[in-house]
Amino acid sequence: MSRPLFLLMMNPEAISTTPQVVNSHAKVSAQELKLKGFKAYEVDTAVNPGLAYRRRDFYKVALVTSHCTVHYADRSIELKGTCLMFANPHIPYSIELHEPRLKGYSCLFTEAYMKENDRSESLNQSPLFKVGGTPIFHLSPEQVTYAEGIFQKILAEQSTDYLYKGDLIRTYLQLLIHEALRMQPTSSFVQHQNASSRITALFLELLERMFPIESPEQALPLKSAQDFAQQLAVHVNHLNRSVKEVTGKSTTTHIAERIIGEAKALLHHTAWSTAEIAYSLGFEYPTYFNSLFKKHTSTTPQAFRKAM
């Protein structure tokens, strides 16, 4: 029987706190990733059936050697043999492992790290990381040897004191990227029976990851059901039907309720003006924010703040 693992290579926080991870290299630290911009590690971890979708803050290139199935929105793909996978921090995914342990290599990195010495297009526009794609590549024996060699060089180099090791590791990552660009991503998708539940989980995770709002200049990147559907690479009608079927509420209702919840917190705990709060929550005009707030709370933002 297969057991679900809802992270391909785990996020930095999970790795740093999960004793099941067997890693001969230093444990992955989110703070270290933010400072250096990259971190590579060898993966050999048992499966925890209780894990759920989790936020990922970094881009990832992973070499997966375990038999598993990757679930992405309403699509699934089975990985047999050794595969190379590219993941971006904007779309959650899950993996169903068909073996006792997940094994392979992984390298996490930020977009700023990869673009440090050039002005190339955003990683979001790369064929390997673009939303809507499924950049999973089945490797031939020769490609496996090549990719494993690159990961081993990255692991060895990150432990040295070489002044330009950041540039060298960046070059190694580019070699993996170019090797993948020479191949065509796999297209052996299958529809999953519980696609509605999976899409709903992805939607709710994306919605929650936008909060909390930490600055008046921070505007919500996704504000409508259409925005979320585009980010998840599904049709908006499909998203709306799935969310309604699973939760009993519409996609728009979930978005509005989460925005109102954040608005209450900002009105209570900050000194931001109503206009600043409205902008940070994605409203072009404060009057639109006032109307939505009153619709859901039967009071105005100013009255709510005074009452608090």
Could you walk me through the main structural features you see in this protein, from its secondary elements to its overall organization?
This protein is α+β, with helices and mostly antiparallel strands. Helix 4 (141-157) packs antiparallel against helix 5 (165-181), helix 6 (195-209) packs across helix 8 and helix 10 (274-280) packs across helix 11. The protein is globular. It has a 5-stranded antiparallel sheet with strand order 1-7-4-5-10, covered by helices on one side. It has 12 helices and 10 strands. Mean pLDDT is 80; it is low at 1-26 and 49-55. It folds into 2 domains: 3-190, Sandwich (Jelly Rolls), CATH 2.60.120.280; 194-307, Arc Repressor Mutant, subunit A, CATH 1.10.10.60. Helices cover 43% and strands 17% of the residues. The longest helix has 19 residues, at 251-269. This is Helix-turn-helix domain-containing protein. Keywords: DNA-binding, Transcription, Transcription regulation.
The CATH H-level superfamily of the largest domain is Regulatory protein AraC
CATH architecture of the largest domain: Sandwich
Outline the low-pLDDT stretches.
1-26, 49-55
CATH hierarchy, class of the largest domain: Mainly Beta
List the domain count as a whole number: 2
State the helical fraction. Answer: 40-55%
Spatial sequence of strands, sheet with the most strands: 1-7-4-5-10
What fraction strand? 15-25%
Order of helices and strands: EHHEEEEEEEHEHHEHHHHHHH
The best one-word shape is: globular
Keywords: DNA-binding, Transcription, Transcription regulation
InterPro entries: Homeodomain-like_sf, HTH_AraC
Domain HTH araC/xylS-type: 197-307
Protein name: Helix-turn-helix domain-containing protein
